[in-house]
Amino acid sequence: MASEVLPQDFKIISSLRYDPALSTIGKRAAARTTPDPLTTPYYLLPYHQERLRNAAACFSWGKALAFLKQDTNQFVEFLNTFIPDNTKPWRLRILLDSTGTCEVEVNPTTSMNPLNYLTPTETNLQTTAWRVYIDSERISPSVFTTHKTTARDFYTAARLRSGIVSFVEPAEVLLVNPAGEIMEGSITTPYFRRRDTTDGEGKPAWITPPLSSGGNAGTTRQYALAQGFCAEDTIAATDLVDGEECWLSNGVRGFIRGQIVLRGIDEPHA
């Protein structure tokens, strides 16, 4: 990071969902991790805290780290002060700057099937798939692809290159690193069917790009790995097939079914 020129006045962020239905779902889910990430109405809150701490440590933001030392119960009490109506779902965006000042943006969001919060199974498959494109350019990994911050111009550019102009569109674009490996989605973590069919017994059927490919350590990614839904493995952009099924996930929408659309942009520019 020492040789990297950082933009001015950026903040570290984490977006998540508040939903009172999570208290019911959390009791039904078999947690494989400690602490259980589904014990509060804030989706995967312990993972969001961990991600923010890791980002603050990366940027050497001591005051931000001091704020983030509070435990999950304390953080819940802090976030509760921003919720206008605790009977409705909300989309939260936590922003933290280098001085340790924490802002929380809260916006209405639509209700959804609570099973979408859990890793996909045959019993909670959605019927509508998002269109999933592959970026036509390559992105160099950096601290801003590893950690989620307000410095997101390269994500916006990738979305526009794929013709995605709104966050309400059921569409996503996958970023590709200079080695031609899938890094992540612009707003999601992707999962693909395992390519290696040899010695696959006992291995998860799904894979997600390793952090070494340059993508973000997403909260739902951490949850999917902890639950055994997927394993890490590199995947070349050129290995993806038009029309193939995939999964996407993020901290606001949970798990979303996707379908690869090559549309002539599967070969990144040199």
From TrEMBL:
Lyase in keyword set: yes
Keywords: Lyase
UniProt protein name: Aminodeoxychorismate lyase
Domain of life: Eukaryota
Disordered, as annotated region: 198-217
Entries under InterPro entries matching the protein: Aminotrans_IV, Aminotransferase-like, BCAT-like_C, BCAT-like_N
Molecular-function annotations in GO: lyase activity
A Pfam family that the UniProt record links to this protein: Aminotran_4
